[in-house]
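Q: Structure tokens for this one, please.
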Amino acid sequence: MADEEDPKEYRWETGYEKTWEAIKEDERGLLQSSVAEIIQKAKRKRQAEKKGLSRLGMMRHLYVIVDGTENMGLQDLKPTRLVCTMKLLEVFIEEFFDQNPISQMGFIVLKSKRAEKISDLTGSSRRHVKAVKGLADLALTGEPSLQNGLDLALKTLKMVPAHASREILVIMGSLTTCDPTDIHVTIDALRADGIRCSVISLSAEVRICKHMTKETNGLYSVILDDAHFRDQLLQHVEPPPAAKTQENSLIKMGFPHGRADEGKDPALTLCTCHLDSADEPSHLSVGGYQCPQCLSKYCELPIECITCGLTLVSAPHLARSYHHLFPVARFRELEWQRQSELCYGCQKVFSEMHDRLVYQCETCLMIFCTDCDIFIHDDLHTCVGCSTIPATVATLQSSVFSKSLH
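A: Here is the predicted structure, written as tokens:
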């Protein structure tokens, strides 16, 4: 009878493979849920650490150093580390200039023990996105040299005015660095010039990177997956605390108006911002922004005038820059006990949510879910209840609530 039975049914290899697939699916689900909880806790912690009326570096000059060696071809991030980094950097660029419109950014790539600058410090997000997309054709070979990348960024950041914030963000996929000399000398120079260095590691914790971030008051993080990578990258969108060496000074700015030439046949004029650009051809157009000091024409704002050096911005740019100085107060964390059936922000029913924690604004006393709480503090920067409920009603609600507590 034993010979007539199917031998495949009793093979230990088949049973092992089925058990392993089931275990992997369970572990994947648990890992995704745990990573989501880690991201939410990290965002809540960053909200709690925000303090109003603090001194921040508003005019930021940031260099992003990207590892372009063979370690970025690994597939632990899908489809590869480099492709995942490129997609997230495009999101980071747009968010950075949306929240910091009067700041500048540049990109450096590490490859074959050398550092290459692929975009200079500029406030144009279009140029940076184009440079990041060009990394798709990069040949991933050799080892990185962290010191060469830091030295290249240091040469440019030294020329930045003392009132501006100077930062370096390193995205490192390798566990080693091949440096020509002692890298501690470069770290000491960065600390002396007040340059803040942060590192996002795609592999594991590297001692020299952690030492560098500690010496320069930067942030060091090791990612868990692509969602955690996105969260760790976007936390660098908000301006950091101002360095002790950063000076206070008045900055002269120009506020040009966007106008088109009047008349039946408006004249075509040359744009100054494309005049000296090697990767973008010069073109003639009718509209644009004219510098109030030297009358040079530009396509977009904000930008630094090439002719006279005047910083050209608009009023909304300054408004978006200064909301970091007045963050929304942290909401009170409560357990949902049917004091409110709906989230005031998204109008979702609390009973249908898995998370039993709700958040209440102490000014308008409106109840919000976890997603709306994070969205208000990270993206909207204003409480939905305080901006929609009249001030008299909010004051009355607050007094009634305080009496009920006593």
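A few notes: The chain is about 35% helix and 15% strand. Residues 1-20, 400-406 have pLDDT under 50 and may be disordered.
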